[in-house]
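Section 5: illustrative case.
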């Protein structure tokens, strides 16, 4: 853990690497309504554009999906105070304390988000309903940021409470939930690994693969009410295990998670994960065991030559020490054409 400075909420000087990226990410889940969200806005000066993904879980399998892009210059400091891409806007009201996420514009209202695994040209007629989404989320931090790195290549996360309202298709929903945000800057290679599942991404929501699903990254965040939150990431090792580290914040204070091991099961014939089992130990020696089940899914696709990385974003229900929590279980797979 390193010292917090307000300047890390702003843009950083870009490096020479063409893959330089600076991004802002927020998520939350409201257990009462089933509404959840993940939002990512990323600036890539080497590519000359910024993009924004704003996806909303609307209960059951229903998802509202949006995506936007804008051209940008090389000096990212020009966008401090101008975090607007497409119809998504982010506003820092108080560094590390309060943000606002707002969206006003078109969205795809999708009855079953898993359809996003299917190539667009092969999706059945009526796979989504064009809709207008209006949404404002007031973000209040619950913890200090936890830095994984600082300096030229940095990353931090912190837990939050999210309140607000959304309107879509004539329906209005108020929400009040908990989540996690992160900020990162430095070179970012989305494909990340040559390992992963191979197969054709054209067979529908239940993607057929030539081999068993083999995610190369598993990222997670979860909240058990306002008092307990945790997050972290695991990477595929040469022996096939998903192993990593993270953090936990609760009544015992802030602690690191070490030796985090994740096992997942998948929907039959698919790379969409269904259940999660996680074990870890804290730096203070406490054993942590968590079981989770995905209750809504929003796959996202990042193309690369000869295939794509699918980042499958699962809204999940977790149990830890007989307590129920909610969050995001994110599994990354490389799929080749």
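Designed sequence:
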């Amino acid at each position: 853990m390193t010292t917090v400075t307000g300047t890390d909420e702003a843009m950083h000087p870009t490096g020479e690497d063409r893959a330089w990226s600076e991004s802002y990410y927020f998520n939350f889940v409201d257990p009462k309504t089933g509404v959840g969200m993940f939002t990512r806005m990323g600036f890539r000066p080497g590519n000359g554009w910024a993009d924004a993904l704003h996806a909303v879980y609307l209960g059951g399998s229903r998802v509202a999906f949006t995506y936007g892009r804008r051209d940008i210059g090389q000096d990212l400091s020009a966008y401090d105070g101008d975090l607007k891409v497409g119809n998504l806007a982010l506003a820092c009201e108080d560094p590390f304390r309060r943000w606002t996420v707002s969206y006003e514009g078109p969205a795809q209202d999708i009855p079953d988000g898993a359809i996003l695994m299917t190539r667009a040209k092969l999706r059945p007629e009526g796979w989504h309903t064009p809709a207008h989404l209006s949404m404002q989320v007031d973000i209040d931090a619950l913890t200090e940021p936890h830095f994984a790195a600082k300096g030229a290549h940095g990353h931090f996360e912190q837990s939050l409470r999210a309140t607000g309202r959304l309107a879509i298709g004539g329906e209005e929903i108020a929400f009040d939930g908990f989540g996690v945000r992160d900020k990162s800057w430095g070179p970012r290679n989305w494909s990340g690994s040559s390992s992963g599942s191979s197969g054709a991404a054209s067979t529908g929501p239940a993607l057929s693969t030539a081999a068993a699903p083999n995610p190369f990254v598993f990222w997670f965040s979860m909240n058990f009410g306002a008092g307990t939150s945790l997050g972290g990431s695991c990477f595929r090792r040469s022996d096939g295990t998903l192993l990593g580290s993270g953090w936990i914040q609760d009544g015992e204070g802030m602690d690191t998670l070490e030796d985090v091991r994740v096992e997942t099961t998948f929907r039959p014939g698919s790379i969409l994960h269904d259940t999660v089992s996680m074990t870890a130990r804290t730096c203070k020696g406490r054993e942590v065991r968590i079981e989770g089940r995905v209750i809504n899914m929003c796959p996202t696709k990042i193309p690369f030559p000869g295939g794509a990385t699918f980042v499958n974003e699962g809204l999940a229900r977790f149990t830890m020490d007989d307590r129920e929590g909610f969050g995001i279980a994110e599994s990354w797979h490389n799929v080749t054409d």
